[in-house]
Amino acid sequence: MLAQRLFRSFAKNKPLKISAITSENGVKFTSQTGGHSYEIRDALENLMGSLAICEVSAIKALSSKESFKVNSINFTRLESSYNLENFKKGGKGNQMEDIILEADFDTNGTQEQLDALQAKVHHHCPMYCTLTAAGIKIHSTWRNNPKK
């Protein structure tokens, strides 16, 4: 059930159709199933963006069952680095450094409720699980900052 909400195009047995157009600035991807479009400069940026999108999708799916409402999310920091030294030498073992993810939430819930939601989201987000299973540490901080 949760997977169906996270991945609607697959749940409806529709193939995921993505077009990619290259330019001097990077690549523009457009999802023909969801009508979404975004531009990226490189593969690492795409991977990091996928983590944020995955978390937002999981938050939407899971927060509907919570006793509080998530009004908005602002990712204030999402960064990592990638050491290319082994790659340049033709070696293996290239890996991203730790990922730092920070987000401010506008909710009517408490920080404790947000922390509990964060644990559920990290368990259900395929991108988060894939990255951590690859040995990449994700330092994730969610702050409850309701608009006053």
β-strand amount: 25-35%
Provide the helix percentage. 25-40%
Along the chain, the helix and strand elements come as: HHEEEHEHEHHE
CATH class category name of the largest domain: Alpha Beta
Low-confidence parts, pLDDT < 50 over ≥5 residues? 1-13
CATH architecture of the largest domain: 2-Layer Sandwich
Radius of gyration, Cα only, in angstroms?
17 Å
Q: Tally the helices: what do you get?
A: 6
In total, how many domains does the architecture comprise? 2
Large-scale geometry: elongated
Number of strands: 6
CATH T-level fold name of the largest domain: GMP Synthetase, Chain A, domain 3
Query: Separation of termini?
Result: 35 Å
Report on the biggest sheet: 3 strands, antiparallel
What this model shows, in words?
The protein has 148 residues and is an alpha+beta fold. The protein has two domains: 1-41, no CATH class; 42-86 and 95-148, K homology (KH) domain (GMP Synthetase, Chain A, domain 3), CATH 3.30.300.20. It is built from six helices and six strands. The chain is elongated and about 55 Å long. It starts with a helix and ends with a strand.
